[in-house]
Amino acid sequence: MKQPKNAEAFSLPLVEKKHGILNILARKGLSRALNGLIFYSIANHFPSVELPLGGIGQWLRATLAKRMLRHCGKNIRIGPNVKIGSGEQISLGDNSNIGRASWILGKASIGDFVMMAPEVIILSSNHEFKDRSTPMIIQGQRVEDPVIVCDDVWIGTRAIILPGVTIGSHSIVAAGAVVTKDVAEYSIVGGNPARVIGCR
User: Fold this and answer.
1) pTM here?
2) Cα distance between residue 66 and residue 61, in whole Å
3) Helix (H, G, I), strand (E, B) or coil at 77
4) HEC string for 158-176
5) What is the Cα 185 distance to its own chain's centre?
6) Chain-centre distance for alpha carbon 63
7) How many C-beta atoms surround the C-beta of residue 192 within 10 A?
8) Lateral strand order in the sheet of 160-161
9) What is the DSSP letter of 88?
10) Residue in 19, 71, 127, 170 annotated catalytic
11) Which of 5, 48, 72, 193 is the most buried (most CB within 10 A)?
């Protein structure tokens, strides 16, 4: 029996390069949106890895993050209740983690072997406030200024890293620090605003 000319179109696999459903979704951004929906509605509510069912939650969050983030390394850990937006402006290196209930909002590049404690906040944009004749809420936001966290950095609980900051390799940000300026390699910073309190 002779097949119709377009019979091949119906036998294409779901992931075929041009016509596959998954690739069409990815091109339209729907794949990231779907992964985000599962991440925030299901995976984020599983407990930490050390608790019962935590291993499943960790695996699910890491799997979804690989599909959401701009770049995602190997052997990563994502804690519960993390907020990373759509993830498309965030990169996460090998053997790094995002701590429980942490927020990464906007553009951020996180290197390899980065330890992030719970409730860390990384911001890449801020509100405009220069025009004193206009309410700040109307002035909008500044152009995003990416945050860069280099390799082998430890960021303590409830630290806040503000737009445009680069944290040098092998440094430590103490718990509760508010980092407003670049941090040199091997430095230990703490306080509000953060200042150098030691050196490794």
Assistant:
1) 0.80
2) 9
3) strand
4) CCEECCCCEECCCCEECCC
5) 22
6) 13
7) 11
8) 103-105, 121-123, 160-161, 178-179
9) T
10) 127
11) 72
Here the tokens at position 89 are: 């402006």
CA gap 195, 107 in Å, rounded:
24
Q: What is the pLDDT of residues 44-85, one digit of tens each?
A: 888 887 778 778 889 999 999 998 999 999 999 999 999 998
Average pLDDT, the chain: 86
Tell whether the model's pLDDT for residue 28 goes beyond 60.
no
User: What φ, ψ does residue 122 adopt, rounded to 5°?
Assistant: -120, 120
Residue type, 164: G
Return the closest-CA partner of residue 22 out of 71, 67, 53.
67
Q: Is 178 exposed, middle or buried (0-12, 13-18, 19+ CB in 10 A)?
A: middle
CA gap 42, 152 in Å, rounded: 30
- Which tokens is 159 given? 């630290």
Bridge partners of residue 104, in order along the sequence: 122
For residues 95 and 73, the answer to whether their CB atoms sit within 8 Å is yes
> HEC profile for 92-161?
ECCCCEECCCCEEECCEEECCCCEECCCCEEECCCECCCCCCCCHHHHCECCCCCEEECCCCEECCCCEE
Q: Torsion over CA of 136, 138, 143 and 148, rounded to 10 degrees?
A: 50
Residue that has been written with the tokens 């294409």 in this structure: 12
pLDDT of residue 30: 76
Evaluate the omega torsion of the peptide bond into residue 4 and state whether it is cis, within 30 degrees of 0.
Answer: no
- Scan for tokens 């599983």, then name that residue: 46
